[in-house]
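Minutes, project huddle
Topic: does the predicted pose make sense with 6R9 bound?
PN asked that the exact inputs be recorded in the minutes so nobody has to dig through chat later. Recorded below.
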Amino acid sequence: MTHAVYPVPRQWAENALVKADDYTALYRESVENPDSFWRREAQRLDWIRPFTTVKETSFHEQDFGIRWFADGTLNLSANCLDRHLAERGDTIAIIWEPDDPSEANRQISYRQLHEMVCRFANALKANGAGRGSRVTIYMPMVPEAAVAMLACARIGAIHSVVFGGFSPEALAGRIQDCDSSLVVTADEGLRGGRATPLKTNVDEALKHCSSVEKVIVYRRTGAEVPMVDGRDVDWDDAVRDASNHCPPEEMGAEDPLFILYTSGSTGKPKGVLHSTGGYGVWTSMTHQYVFDYRPGQVYWCAADIGWVTGHSYIVYGPLANGATQVMFEGVPNWPDHSRFWQIIDKYRVEIFYTAPTALRALMREGDEPVKATSRASLKLLGTVGEPINPEAWEWYHRVIGEGRCPIVDTWWQTETGGAMIAPMPGAVPLKPGSATLPMFGVRPVLLESDGTPIEGAGDGCLAITDSWPGQMRTVWGDHERFFQTYFTTFPGMYFTGDGCRRDQDGYYWITGRIDDVINVSGHRMGTAEIESALVAHENVAEAAVVGMPHEIKGQGIYAYVTVNVGVEPDEALRSQLIKWVRHEIGPIATPDAIQFAPALPKTRSGKIMRRILRKIAEGDVSTLGDTSTLADPAVVDRLIEGRQ
Ligand code: 6R9
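Predicted holo structure (tokens), as shared on screen:
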């Protein structure tokens, strides 16, 4: 197969932070002599006590462990704020653009952000939080969300941000799992002109959570919300008398920074735990090199703070690098489809980072809403979250960037902390649809499913053979699950769960998840989670969920449902079940199709054959493969007839 190749534009080749030769030499050093490479890179952070050891890691069962810079101490909030004050205290850190363009924006300098964080850190302490305690943050996209995260980092509390689109049930599960003592939320969130009742959701969730003692409520819309006496505190009241002086806590490099829940192929969501030192070095380094970031440039990552992209590339990476960034509360298609491009013009954004699903949705609206804007400030574009189809890549490149801006397609995961496979724009020629080449320190391998390594060009399971500083350190409360999930499929390696192809030039092409995780609009959903929500409904006997191709979302959710005896599987039940799943997990888990199935295809040992269900959902029934191991092969014909 031949693919378009976009060479590095001359200006980029000459002026980039990392040029082609640098990339080759530094990559080699990073894998051959990681200690010297990382000892130098880690100097990008301010350490309180310098580290003496660098890399102490093993993926093998007998001496399994991941430690980086372990005897060093630092504070990441100080790295994101205090150290910038002398030189760029008055530089704007966050330009906040509200959902409604007619509402006033906010521009917050590093000095102001520092003061907001110090005050809120003292407020957290006054409400019982401290080193090691867990604070759940359930907030809309307002600067106070970042303030809450940095305030936790400042006092050594571990934040757990829960995306504002999750339901009270999903929020409760995440609060219970890490026993948060404090929740930070807002009265309401605003997106696309619609309000989300965040505080009411928290009240609902807390009926099932005994660990929470305090709730701090930021007033976003001013809506009337019930406040529980002795438990609920107004944000403004909490900070009003708080001192603006709050010395940063001295944290060990391996002390936990945050927990972020993510869906896996089995069981309930896992609390991915990231460390302080390694994560700080990794997010700062990748942000600088992948986006070729120079102080003074306006950068915009359009992700939500509830996902890892928001953690790494809105909060920790850019702020550690002293960046000026846009933070956007709203959505790409409201009030109209030019919203993103208008914001780019309004603030002269140079670097823009978003997800393929947003691009595909906007592409469908045609070029007019784009052409109505200038976008002359743009220099670099980025994508993340799912594979980008070459068609969307070309549109992004040709129409949005007018052929002038390299596109950095960044492959990474909640577990990896930051970009793992991504082009450095001044060093690596681009191929639409490929995340290109590995980041410094990243050693990818492709394997057959039996573990045989694939050399050269080929297609297989993507694993990483050695540790990198931004790697997650454990699953909160379940270290054994961490080891079992990631290091046993291919012993001695980190297994990503993704399939991948490598071409003759050594470029990586992520083909998507090969486990039971589906990627809906760049959001990870465990099929098991949706299945357990479905079977929790009184009329459902059994459910199996698979991904299906979806033009905009990348993947859609296709659910096979077997109802209880005596229940009529009709349209009313179908819409009831869709509502039910939204209620149990949140709108992002809304099934796109529900097929009522009299029975599911199972092996004789009772295992559901998902491969067959996937094929039927994809509408590809000509290649169902071997069905001879099914207990009742006739089930398949009935499923094909009933396809939605
Ligand atoms: C950062 C983030 C991780 C999964 C990952 C993969 C998919 C992410 C991608 C990509 C192809 C890219 N993914 N970036 N696939 N190209 N550039 O998205 O983290 O939410 O944990 O999702 O997303 O399948 O395994 P997370």
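Observations noted during the meeting:
- The mean pLDDT is 95.
- The two ends are 34 Å apart (CA to CA).
No decisions taken; revisit at the next huddle.
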